[in-house]
Amino acid sequence: MDKRSAVLSWCRAAVAMAAIFSQSAVHATGQLVIAGGAVRADNAEVFGEFVTHLSGDGPVVVIPAASGRPARSGQSAAESLAMFGVDAARLEVFPLALLDDRGTEDVDESSWKENAWDSALVRRIETAAGFWFTGGDQSRITQLTRSASGEESPFLQLLRKRLQDGAVIGGTSAGAAIMSTLMITGGDSFTALTQPEPGEYNAMTEQEQGHLSLSAGLGFLPRGLVDQHFDRKARLGRLIRALPLTGEQVGLGVDEDTALSVDLGTGEARVVGSGSVVRLDTSDASFAWDGETLASGIRLSVYPRLTRFRLSDGVLLETQGEPTMGNEYYDHSVRLGGGMAFPNQTLEQMLGNDLLDNAGTNRLVRVSVDSAGTAISYRFIQRGSSKGFWDRAQGANRYTIIGVGMDVTRTTANRP
Questions:
Q1: What is the pTM of this model?
Q2: Which residues are 213's β-sheet partners?
Q3: pLDDT in tens, 276-308
Q4: Structural domains of the chain ordered from first start
Q5: 364-394, pLDDT tens digit by residue?
Q6: How far is CA 246 from CA 36, 180, 278, 293, 412, in A?
Q7: Which end of the chain is least crowded, N or C, by CB within 10 Å?
Q8: What region does 141 belong to: left with phi over 0, alpha with psi -120 to 50, or beta?
Q9: Of 115, 184, 185, 99, which Cα lies nearest the Cα of 156?
């Protein structure tokens, strides 16, 4: 069996394992704060959301396991939490790391590798009110908290118990990826869509480029697949490709400096921070990775800050602003294309300004082309059930986008 076939076999086995896990998992009542990475140290909404949901007066634990600078990143996260109201006496950096940071001469962080299995260390935080995972490489977190055979460490067992009892678990970047039962470890959107069989993840450099790669996450979020750094790193395509591989029908793309806060007891979600959260629904979608139409029938929604929605079906519970449908501000035709010569819009602004708040069109196409002439087209369609809301917040137009249709096609750039 070649490597790629082995990876595909692993994906199928992992989907089956995930189904078993989801059936046997104890229903949790706690809170998740899933941050998309690059969270500013002074982001009051994201860190404040985590602090607000601390359960009890026990320790607040920072976990730097993903980082290549564990001691320093752990301390930095602790300082941010202290800035937003956590008593410094409650803060603990749990010493868990894979690599030594040569910049910290007084400590060898690689000696922390086995600490998730140290019962004495785990007992020290058994009443923890919350846990915060720093960014880095998400595969380090899973490697350090599970054995090679999949056995869960006492540390990971404690996290599950505390979440079940109402504690909050948060994390940024890598700390967001691990929330899913299966997680994305690397790859870029263009490769994921044009070379759609998954590959192996070998190094952190592959987080940004190459074949889509998947691995087992920690499964704190019972349903859905998370991707982070979403809009800035153009990860829409890789999330679309990853969904059928993992067996999930809901994808959640979290922007940088932004968090998706999930109440596991009620199933309600809230967006905080400066960006947006994208929700993909593929329950009625079809996929054909060897054809021209790669994906069709996807439903896409974009939720900006302070929006609340139901995680299971995306139903809007609270939003800011006024409906755009039938009251469009713009009326202009839109050039179909993409790349550096086109405006550098966020997905939220593009679908708002040029589609749902624009009477001049009900269809939008963005195209990416590589040097070999392969073209990927994202087609966004305003449907009868689509909804848009406009608001002016913090000096900028913000849009809530609900139920836009989406297809993905692959062609050659010189084809008419």
A1: 0.94
A2: 186
A3: 999 999 999 999 999 899 999 999 999 999 999
A4: 3-19+29-275 (3.40.50.880), 301-307+320-412 (no CATH)
A5: 999 999 988 999 999 999 999 999 999 998 7
A6: 20, 10, 18, 20, 29
A7: C
A8: alpha
A9: 115
